[in-house]
Amino acid sequence: MTTTPPPPQTIATRVPGETDPGASLGPGGNGRGKVSRPRRGAIAKERLSSPWASGIAIVIAIMWTVPTFGLLVTSFRPSADIRQDGWWNVVTSPSFTLQNYQDAMTGSTRMVDYFINSLVITLPAVFIPISLALLAAYAFAWIDFKGRELLFVAVFALQIVPIQITLIPLLSTYNDWGLAGSFWTVWLSHSIFALPLAIFLLHNFMKDIPKSLVEAARVDGAGHVKIFFQVLLPLLMPAIAAFAIFQFLWVWNDLLVALVFGSSQDIRPLTVHIAELAGTRGQTWHLLSAGAFISMIVPVIVFLSLQRYFVRGLLAGSVKG
Amino acid sequence: MDEILNNAGLWIEYYTRPVREWLLDADGAGHKLALMVVAILLFVGVMGGILALVDRSRRAPGWLVTVAFVGPALAAITFGLIYPALRTIYSSFFNRNGSEFIGMDNYIQAFTQSQFQLVLRNTALWVLLVPVLATLIGLIYAVVVDRTRFEKFAKTLMFLPMSISMVGAGIIWRFMYDYKQTSAEQTGLLNQLLVMVGLDTKQFLLDSPENNFFLIIVMVWIQAGFAMTILAAAIRAIPDDIVEAARLDGLTGIKMFRYITIPSIRPALVVVLTTIAMATLKVFDIVRTMTNGNFGTSVVANEFYEQSFRQLNAGLGAALAVILFVLVIPIVIYNVRQMRISEEIR
């Protein structure tokens, strides 16, 4: 075993890139936490006392919630009511039902199947790029080899390639290989598209781990594999979580890749199905509203429960769009 | 010899068929979930296997270790990004089925035909308006909720649209824009508001060209949360002594915002603007879900899909993809240059 001392807590909880946008903001560095309690209170009072600021905040908050709220209310209204009048009428004549959800899940739209497809598509598309990117990021951060800088910059630059530019050739390759219409096309595509960002993010985090930790393990005779698993991996968990959430939301919410590679009935995810429903039966609001929320529930739960990591990941700087 | 190899090939094909069928044709929930587990284990297992081999052989040369670590990722990137991108650039100089070299014709068509000029104009509108509006709203919101009692909750409200799909957002807003005749009972909130102030109802998504703005609002609605998060963090990071000094100099309110906040968070502003601009350039789902690109609302990313997979004009589709790529480049260059400048200052 190595005699490496336990790493200082700050490494595990702090995200390297977090200061990226912030740190460069001015001399003197980061002033967070320096404010003493009473002063914070004073500032808060000052802000709250400005009616203009409160007014603006409330107006924006309403504009950002009412659209979703309206559709959510609609999804619980009887379909006859939905056709007849607006959702705000529930205030005067409330009537709610779960029928829309039942219809959407099991009726002719069979959302249950597409829900499973979404899940089956998403999980491997999160795990595969992480395992590939971890290895590559380790090499870029801790193995000295010729052309390392150049290769890393190349990988970094590939983040900006719009995936549109790859779709047609990839599709014909999958066809040649007899993979078309299977989950493998979607898994492979999502994994590959995620790699540049994954490698970049994980590399940044790995670089931030003190060299002394790795050196100490090396002196103790640990090889790359041992260092990777025993020293780095535990410290990288927050970073991995951050990227995993990104990728999860990205894949679950993706429409383009799924349309191109996975539109066959057997593997199409929720997004494709709902987009099609919107195109062909655009006025069946009882199905559309329930379907939309069925597709949103998972990402919203993931997002709300892991928001901390997500924000860190955002602040670590991403240019994927 | 050939015959033996041939036979062997047939044998292998025959005996692996059940396996291949199981791997490729998944139907039924149980089968799909099992396949999912197999896929994850396969990749993670292969990775682990490579590592174990490298580790086992103590005398493995350095280059082999390096290849084992970066090889899989680089191979995947080459296969799935670099090679297809080059192929697309190549086929953008060919006709619709790739049988005839036609030089720049696809590009000329994309820039001169009025149908595509409209697409380019719309894309320009999106790329100019979405980043500016989303950043402006995100910034204002970040400032007004900063350090209030409801800060966390208020931020989550604006942030939530980021977690849902653009398809979902498209549906939410289509419902907002729902149209009924003025005399009828309204189901769309915005038309209801119009009726309440005594105006005629409006076909928000059909009336060109303003329908573009109503689609743009959806993207602003999604992206403002991103802008708000980054900018709020940047505002927090402004050193207190600077704020304090400015306060002693008598700066308050708007002036404080203009002369202290904005200059201090300039690098973050650039990151936010460029990141949203890049995301906007590739926006496809919103247009697809809300108007299908009809009524003069198509953008480059949507037109790419339309030409490639609906009209089956591979050459023109490829050219549009390349145009998309070329349009990203100036944004990235600007971004990188700004990063450099702010790093030098640091």
From TrEMBL, chain A:
Pfam families: BPD_transp_1
Transcription in keyword set: no
Region of interest: Disordered: 1-39
Transmembrane spans: 52-73, 114-143, 150-172, 184-206, 227-252, 285-306
Annotated Gene Ontology cellular component terms: plasma membrane
Keywords: Cell membrane, Membrane, Transmembrane, Transmembrane helix, Transport
Gene Ontology BP, a term: transmembrane transport
SUPFAM superfamilies in the record: MetI-like
Topological category with respect to the lipid bilayer: Multi-pass membrane protein
Plastid keyword on record: no
Subcellular location: Cell membrane
The protein's name: Carbohydrate ABC transporter permease
Organism: Actinotalea soli
